[in-house]
Amino acid sequence: MNNASSSGIWEWQLVRLIVFGAIALFILFIAIEGFTEEGIRLVIRWTARIDVVCFCIAFGASAFHRMRKNSFSFWVYMNRKYFGISFAILHLIHLLALGVLQYVFHPVFEQAAGISLLAGGIAYLFIILMLLTSFEYFSKMISRKNWKLLHTFGGYWILMIFFSSYGKGVMRGEYWDLIFLTMLVMVLGIRMLVARK
Ligand code: HEM
Fold first, then answer.
1. CB 1 within 8 A of CB 10
2. Does 98 sit in the ligand 1 pocket, CB within 6 Å?
3. CB proximity list for 100: less than 8 A, separation 6 or greater
4. pTM above 0.85, yes or no
5. Is residue 63 a part of any domain in this protein?
6. For 35-89, how does the pLDDT look when each residue is reduced to its tens digit (9 = 90+)?
7. Is residue 4 assigned to a domain?
8. How many angstroms does the Cα of residue 15 sit away from the middle of ligand 1?
9. What is the pLDDT of residues 149-170, one digit of tens each?
């Protein structure tokens, strides 16, 4: 719906803005902290933070637009796929930074609990499948019903991991994580409300 008359930022422009903006921020972190464990951990934490916002927008867009019909909810709704794509790209950067942490600084994968690795691994499988099936070439390979199942179930799985990560953060006393937890609860709430109507 990106036509000449529509103003603002749409579709791939939005993806470029989010992804390159985030990469610029990550380069700044490394420039300030140096190529150190703390620098890489900052990148990991911030990929998750920018990502949770993209995820909430993508996962809540349809319900939000059904609840409130205005030009902003329309913009969010029309761009939901592009927020989803930005989320997936940034989460692949999360994985890349984890790889750097593992091989250069700290054996993070060996020290993580088996259950967390399994849940995170499944989430990555969903992220990749959801990313691929956001493009017509791959989405044509599955039925509409299976596409919906994949994106709904995958979405709830990812939501659960964010929930558990930020929930643990709050319990450790990292109260900033409450912001992200609240966003996740709101998305869940809006989806439930609209589903009941
Ligand atoms: C096997 C895959 C994964 C591993 C090994 C992993 C590992 C980590 C590590 C070590 C951190 C802490 C970095 C630090 O604070 O120093 C972290 C943070 C985080 N990760 Fe991942 N992660 C994985 C997948 C995921 C997935 C799939 C999601 C969400 C869908 C996710 C969401 C988060 C969040 C929300 C944080 C907290 C950020 C913060 O403290 O602000 N991770 N991850």
1. yes
2. yes
3. 40
4. yes
5. yes
6. 999 999 999 999 999 999 999 999 999 999 999 999 999 999 999 999 999 999 9
7. no
8. 22
9. 999 999 999 999 999 999 999 9
